[in-house]
Amino acid sequence: MGNLKAQNGVINSIWEGVGGKSTWQNTRFILFVVKGNELSSSFKESRRFLLNKSNGEVRFEGKDAQGDRYIFLFNYQSQKLKKIYKNQIEIKNANSENELFQDLLAQFNEDSSLLFIQTFLDKSGSKLGSVENKISNAEKLNGIPFKTSSLMNKPLSGKIYTSTENYLLRNLELNEEEYLIDGYKDIGGGLTLPTIFKSTSDSSKSSSYSLVASFTEMEESKFSTL
pLDDT tens digit string along 145-157? Predict the structure, then answer.
């Protein structure tokens, strides 16, 4: 789909901007809190996700539209629900909350896709287009069209632009939405991720990640109980 040498050069620079491919691969746990870009009315407050990259387990904490506090324990790889707690009480019949869980899965896929987009581009099966250049805010950017998949193996497509000087992500076109990127944070272990995604067409599509942190160790109980 494009010049292989130029594509590899852009991918390598994207990994350098993140902090290195090996650094990402060695990071086991990531915690992030995000607000904005709500896909439904189910979760209108900030959303807190703790994920184990090695096995797909996730702990979600947040409120629904009625103000009830939920904790969902699930696996993003299998998309299976393990446990639900509502206002600190376990719901034994998890199927009763299936619609809410489906909303949550879609929201997790969206939130994690934005935050981790740079790490998906050289996944197995990804396709890249020809490298492009443009000037934005007096800064030279390298861009590359892509087709790849999310943590949940949902299709992602668009175009990513990074700075030619520090390799930070600047612009992103993802699934027909365009974002300006800002707010880079060292999340631990040398990983740097963007935390502010401003939609150029619809402010309700913008996202802000108030907290992003990585860990090499975590209590296993976080993924199994309240």
Answer: 999 999 999 999 9
